[in-house]
Amino acid sequence: MEDVLNAIVLITNFLIVPGLAYGSQLALGALGITLVYGILRFSNFAHGETMAFGTMITILVTWFLQARGVGLGPLPTALLALPVGIAATIVLVLLTDKWVYRFYRNQKSPPVIFLIASVGVMFLMNGIVRFVIGPRDQTFTDGERFIITAREFKQLSGLREGLAIKTTQGITVITAIVIVIALFWFLNQTRTGKSMRAYSDNEDLALLSGINPDKVVMVAWIFTAILATIAGTLYGLDKSFKPFVYLQILLPLFASAIVGGLGNPLGAIAGGFVVAFSEVSFTFAYRKFLAYLLPENWAPEGLVQLLSTDYKFAVSFVILVLVLLVKPTGIFSGRAL
Amino acid sequence: MIGRLKNFGLFAVMALLIALVGFMQSWSLALAILNLCLISAVMALGVNIQWGYAGLFNVGVMGFAALGGLAGVVISTPPVAAAWSAGGFGIIASLVIALITIIISVAIYSRLKGAGILRVWAAVLVAIAGYFIARIFFEPAVDAIEAVEPAKTGFLGGFGLPIIFAWIVGGVFAAGAAWVVGKISLGLRSDYLAIATLGISEIIVAMLKNEDWLARGVKNVSGLPRPVPYEINLQRSEWFQDWANSMGVSTVEFSSIFVKLCYAGLFASVLLIVLWLSERALNSPWGRMMRAIRDNETAANAMGKDVTSRHLQVFVLGSAVIGIAGAMLTTLDGQFTPASYQPLRFTFLIWVMVIVGGSGNNWGAVLGGFLIWFFWVEAEPIGLWLMDTITSGMAEDNALRLHLLKSAAHMRLMTMGLILLLVLRFTPSGLIPERRR
Amino acid sequence: MSYLIGEHMTGGYGGADILHDCTIAVDKGEIAVVVGPNGAGKSTAMKAIFGMLSLREGRVLIGDEDITGLTPQARVLKGMGFVPQNNNVFTSMTVEENLEMGAFIREHGVAETMQQVFELFPVLEEKRRQPAGELSGGQRQQVAIGRALMTRPEVLMLDEPTAGVSPIVMDELFDRVIEIARTGIAILMVEQNAKQALNIADTGFVLVQGRNRYTDTGAALMADPEVRAAFLGG
Lengths: 337, 437, 234
Fold this sequence. Notes:
The complex is a heterotrimer. By secondary structure, chain B is mainly alpha-helical. Chain B contains 18 helices and two strands. By secondary structure, chain C is α/β, with parallel strands linked by helices. Chain C has a single domain, classed as Rossmann fold (3-Layer(aba) Sandwich), CATH 3.40.50. Chain C has helices spanning 42-50, 72-77, 95-102, 110-120, 122-126, 137-149, 167-182, 194-200, 218-223, 225-231, and strands spanning 4-11, 19-26, 31-35, 57-62, 65-66, 80-83, 155-159, 186-190, 203-208, 211-217. Chain C has a six-stranded mixed beta sheet, sandwiched between helices. Chain C has a four-stranded antiparallel beta sheet with strand order 2-1-4-5, with helices on one face. In chain C, helix 3 (95-102) packs parallel to helix 6 (137-149). Chain C is globular. The two termini of chain C are 33 Å apart. Chains A and B meet through helix 4, helix 11 and helix 14 of A and helix 5, helix 7, helix 15 and helix 18 of B.
């Protein structure tokens, strides 16, 4: 019995808790991608870099606050800096829209032109981020590191396996829940939110109903900036901030958005968790887990790892491929904001 | 006529720029730039075939170039006998099993149309089972191979053939990967191809970095045999010394220039062949149909053209050209370094070349390849100079000044992003626009 | 002077002209129906009046105000409601949300108008929480008309509202259209089902190749043997 409990704790510690945190980060990021897709009708390759930019501003403000001794006690100071990061990112994406995308919108350019433009924006933003903060790792986590440490848990439960929950993981999940509820409330209950859904559903009819397309696009960008900054900061707090990571995270983000159906917010959230849990469970070494559950002499020799962590991005890719082969519109079918 | 004169002028300016480097910096450097310009031009032609002819957006140029580079290793390095005997069987066995698994999976998926969602699960189950069986052979083999003199080899080695063959094989490798990706993602929304190519290129590079048994991973394979003479041999041979003396230059300098010229000759021949073939294809009925499809997919579909399979053709062809260029690059470098495959350098830069040069026009792609590579190389000195000038008013140890100078390298990212956006917006047809017939 | 007039309209989608000196008018509380063979430019005339294509010649007046230069969105503000033939509901949104979106430009009295729409189309009240995409063809048309009514238009323009619905549903839709007209709204409608439509029309416009061929009251057109023979199938 105790072995089973140990096995469960082990899985929770190394698989479920990290999966939940990572899934929340992906869900928030994928929501931003899906939002842009639903309203502006293109896959935004610059989304990862938008996340990086927002995170960078948050980090800079965090450092400033830390230097002044301002903090949130047990919580990371970054939460205090987040609004500034969000505001700066909103300004950035609105300027990008004004200078880049609006022109193609007026021209009614095909989506692939938007796509290329977004790749240009991606490198521009990437350059800005590296220019300002440099290409190296940055840590900005402070406050209490753990909600519960492995040792505390062991003492509490008397089990051999420990369960550690990092503060950042707790914050990530809670923030994600709050943001998602707020977003859905906005989309389903407010006039502006409904007008965005209407615009995403049927642009021509939305125009006939007197919905202002410029406002819809602007609000979509504002939400994208908010989601991107929060997702990026949470990711940076949880892991660490490396500018190049935000390019690599693009693949899991797109996979999440496509699995759930591009343009469908509910799908993006589901997709985020599907991708996160697949990635974590495929790269998890099950040796110890099996050792607890199997009879003693059955214990496996190898790591029992399905895939080396070096290939974790391959998991997103395989998921993507499967979805494209089986149901290209995604689980929840696309284009329904 | 005026258009042709302008194009000629543009190429003349390009030649002048390279000559200028020759006069102002050194001829060796000028030739080094020229060689990479030639390779870039081939790569740009590949992307132009995909984008310019068919409107396909490939974000995975890096991966296809890396596969071409891998061919350099696989073809030219001598086989490592000890590694083969240690794990050759296991690797081959696992590859065969993987192949059989894929065939069975695909067969299940495509034959059992009636079974609905069940066929997906069946195919996935077979794939997973095959994966585990293959790993039984694969893992011990990899460990055995990587244990063979890890500091020097630790990989299977190649076929020990002249590296020139790698150029063709590199094209084949890239074409194979492109076929798989295209098969999956073409015929769907255009975004999906972009995302899928982004994914495959990341995975290819991850694989090359981690699969040490294949090409030593991040330990790199260096000292690939050359298709041209070595400087040191030239310097030793009498005829060459005499030749250098008669030209009045030092043997060392002349040997370096001579080798680079040999490379330039090889690369230029490939470029000319690819360019000639591309032009032929573009002006053939096939090329006209491609452009018709690009300009109006719905109409072409309605006329009974199989758009998806045409797209697959063009995507595979373009990727093959990128693969050839990738193999040429490895040949020139004389080494294979997986860590050097950066999306900026290998995907984005090539895109900028095509769009600046003129999408849909092969000559434009070539010019773009030359021009953008030239400025890519010269951007750093220019950027540094610019930063130096901007910050010249500040104190030597001013923090901002130091930061700006240190970050000058990142200016490239911004400059290239900016160039792409500006060209896309203000002269979307590029320097040498597509000829409208 | 009629309330809404498209006078001497000439123009097309950039290429050759589709409309040639075409005039269509309707007064408040009346139903005007545009009929004609396929390709006669019926829908084009409708779009021209709504500002979805620019006219080379002619003008559009509403209540004596020249609106020829206005965008469709601006015409909505001038009291015009338009129900397109296809894609005329927000499929992913509920019936109620569809109606709300119709009233997007209005600040007050939205609930009241919605109640009126529900009185007109009781089935919509029943299905108010259902996504419009899940409704039947006839019910969708009701949502589409209801959405346009939510702006409280002076003129309601319907582009083939009965396309693809059964004859019973068509009769019902026409009954509703008459009811709407009785509230003082001008109704301009393009119809394939010419006979049934002319039956309820105060004015009928028969277009052929973008020109007015016959213009008369609905009853007179129905009685005209020439019109009957050529356009109403005897």
